[in-house]
Specification:
mainly alpha, 3 helices
Length: 75
Amino acid sequence: MTSWKEDTEEDQELLDRLRAGDRTAFEAIYQRYHARLYTLAMRYLKNRADTEDALQQLFVKLWTAREALFITRNL
């Protein structure tokens, strides 16, 4: 199991690579966070289709706005 600090450092590396247009970094972020975000969104939206649409919009926005991302905390 990795520590919070190691996860944060890895996330920062992924964000840096994402900003540079690295698709494998995007895929790693997707794999790391999709399930957690899905669970969280389902609690609020209570509808599978709406949750899937919301996550799709989120990840599309993450990719399209990647060069302008400014995240001061963790992903």
